[in-house]
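ok new one. same drill as before - structure tokens go in, u give me an amino acid for every spot. 637 of them this time. try not to just spam alanines like last time pls lmao
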């Protein structure tokens, strides 16, 4: 996939319980630099098992060693609303139901709504944002949360989760749109402190159950949303000290523990948080103790709990006043783990922190020349397919190399037969691509960030670089789809290779240049189209979506990484591109002619004015036929 702001959906929605797997049909990110993944965005679709929980982004290791002047954004990502109830409540969920109410009426509206309805409020702006989340409204809800906490029964019968989620949404929207919402001051700070104090003091706040876990996990995140990280350090240490194997039966309880790491991570941007740890550094030994006590989780689907403990311990190295206490604990944990094997997630997380925050003492930790050291230890298998393609892998057989080379090299001819190009676009020197293949999704999550400086909460990543620069080497960072074993398959292989070809022969300039106007429909939809049509596969998910008729073609022309989700990006992008190629090939030729010259304005005019809404009715008819069986054929063009 190509994107900057959509790291959200790539690892969430998935085919089974393969950790870190991207949604079926989704691709990796084509980008020049990793984007931080927000912990405070709307709730994503609930993973089906706890092994799909996501750790704080490894790319955060590269934050500056001195505290920045402001915290990371509350959101760089718009996550898909969580459908908790299984009901289709969108039609019954209207923003006006909330904006028209104040006081107790507002509280009752929140409590009477589904959590998926409350989750839609993260996306409001303008006057709706002010009506929903001005300080007076937030104080009202915070006070209601405090009052309800006294009798909290350990489940959501009193709609505590909805109130917490509403408050989270308020902080989220106010951070991104302060001019719409207005300022937050002492009144809200006092109210939210009282609400959180009351909740965490309630007898059932830490009950180990799924019913309590959902409210607890959201409330832990609310600590950070409200910037009360310092005040509730003891809550975080309690969760880490209390965790045991009984939590593992409940996804939300494990999530609550893991959310503690997010509160710790983002606390470093608050001076009062750092001062609180200086006054009571016990959180350091708690993190070390968690990693030691739960060493048995390494190598399992809950490795991230231990690696996160090490990572968040090591992050305290950035503060000179805490380095003396932190350094020996980090060194000890590095000594208890290794660069490869079962304990590698812990070692890598710790090593990243030493490299980011105490690099001058790398010899003390044994982490000097870290990037090269890890790359050489992990990516040992190499193969050259030809002058345009080479593969670097963690573990591939000769047969695996041969099959992969054959698939990609034959795709070249198919791609050119579809786009009918006249060679590379001007100033594109990306004549060779390197495909990097890790042994599994877990290995990708462990190593890709430290070697290539990327986010790993996705299905892989295409790094285009600057194609105009001589010697630039584009890379597709990928992993073996371990769930396909004993068959060998590289996840998103043909989709991502299409991004390389499309970028070289269809899209002028680099990724940033390509995104000057909305091009996501083409970039992602075309990658899906080539991937499925080249392999002769029926895209079942797209056919299902066609039957729903959700989008007009003219709407899909406007798809960006900021306004989309996996469904709109991939199956709907595929449907739009397939329709245009089949029904209006002359328009595709014109569009690509503009893209190849970098004439983004002309391409935009073609889509939004020349075509505009003229094809919407025909597209709707085409979708109906597609759903009825015309798209079942593996002959796409």
């Amino acid at each position: 996939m190509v994107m900057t702001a959509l790291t959200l959906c790539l690892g969430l929605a998935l085919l089974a319980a393969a950790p870190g797997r991207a949604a079926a049909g989704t691709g990796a990110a084509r980008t020049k630099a990793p984007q931080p993944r927000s912990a405070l965005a709307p709730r994503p679709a609930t993973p089906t098992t706890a092994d799909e929980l996501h750790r704080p982004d490894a790319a955060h290791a590269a934050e500056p060693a001195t505290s920045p002047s402001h915290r990371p954004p509350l959101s760089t990502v718009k996550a898909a609303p969580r459908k908790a109830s299984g009901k289709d409540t969108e039609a019954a969920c209207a923003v006006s139901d909330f904006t028209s109410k104040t006081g107790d009426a507002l509280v009752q509206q929140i409590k009477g709504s589904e959590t998926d309805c409350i989750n839609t409020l993260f996306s409001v702006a303008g006057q709706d944002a002010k009506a929903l989340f001005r300080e007076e409204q937030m104080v009202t809800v915070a006070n209601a949360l405090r009052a309800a906490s006294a009798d909290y029964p350990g489940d959501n019968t009193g709609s505590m989760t909805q109130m917490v989620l509403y408050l989270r949404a308020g902080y989220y929207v106010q951070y991104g749109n302060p001019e719409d919402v207005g300022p937050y001051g002492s009144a809200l700070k006092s109210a939210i402190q009282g609400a959180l104090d009351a909740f965490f003091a309630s007898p059932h706040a830490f009950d180990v159950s799924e019913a309590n876990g959902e409210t607890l996990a959201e409330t832990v995140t609310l600590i950070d949303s409200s910037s009360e990280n310092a005040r509730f350090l003891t809550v975080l240490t309690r969760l880490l000290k209390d965790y045991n194997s009984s939590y593992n039966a409940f996804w939300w309880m494990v999530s609550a523990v893991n959310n503690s790491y997010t509160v710790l991570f983002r606390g470093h941007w608050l001076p009062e948080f750092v001062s609180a740890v200086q006054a009571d550094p016990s959180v350091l030994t708690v993190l070390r103790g968690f990693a030691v006590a739960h060493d048995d989780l390494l190598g399992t689907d809950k490795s991230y709990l231990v690696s996160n403990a090490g990572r968040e311990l090591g992050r305290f190295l950035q503060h000179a006043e805490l380095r003396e206490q932190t350094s020996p604990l980090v060194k000890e944990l590095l000594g208890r783990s290794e660069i490869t094997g079962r304990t590698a997630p812990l070692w890598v997380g710790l090593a990243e922190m030493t490299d980011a925050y105490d690099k001058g003492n790398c010899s003390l930790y044994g982490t000097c020349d870290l990037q090269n050291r890890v790359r050489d230890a992990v990516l040992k298998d190499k193969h050259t397919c030809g002058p345009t393609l080479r593969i670097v892998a963690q573990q591939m057989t000769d047969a695996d190399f041969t099959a992969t080379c054959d698939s990609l090299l034959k795709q070249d001819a198919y791609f050119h037969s579809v786009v009918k190009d006249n060679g590379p676009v001007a100033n594109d020197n990306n004549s060779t691509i390197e495909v990097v293949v890790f042994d599994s999704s877990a290995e990708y999550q462990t190593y890709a960030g430290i070697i290539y400086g990327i986010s790993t909460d996705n299905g892989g990543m295409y790094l285009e670089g600057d194609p105009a620069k001589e010697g630039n080497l584009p890379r597709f960072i990928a992993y073996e789809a371990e769930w396909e074993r004993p068959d060998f398959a590289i996840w998103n292989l043909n989709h991502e290779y299409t991004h390389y070809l499309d970028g070289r022969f269809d899209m002028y300039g680099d990724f940033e240049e390509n995104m000057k106007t909305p091009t996501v429909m083409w970039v992602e939809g075309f990658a899906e189209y080539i991937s499925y049509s080249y392999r002769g596969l029926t895209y079942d998910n797209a056919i299902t979506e066609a039957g729903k008729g959700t989008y007009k073609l003219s709407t899909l022309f406007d798809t960006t990484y900021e306004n989309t989700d996996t469904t709109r990006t991939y199956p709907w992008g595929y449907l739009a591109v397939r329709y245009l190629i089949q029904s209006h090939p002359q328009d595709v030729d014109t569009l690509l002619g503009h893209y190849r010259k970098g004439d983004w304005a002309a391409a935009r005019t073609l889509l939004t004015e020349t075509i505009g809404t003229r094809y919407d009715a025909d597209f709707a008819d085409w979708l109906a036929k597609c759903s009825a069986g015309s798209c079942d054929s593996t002959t796409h063009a």
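The radius of gyration is 25 Å. and btw The chain is about 50% helix and 5% strand.
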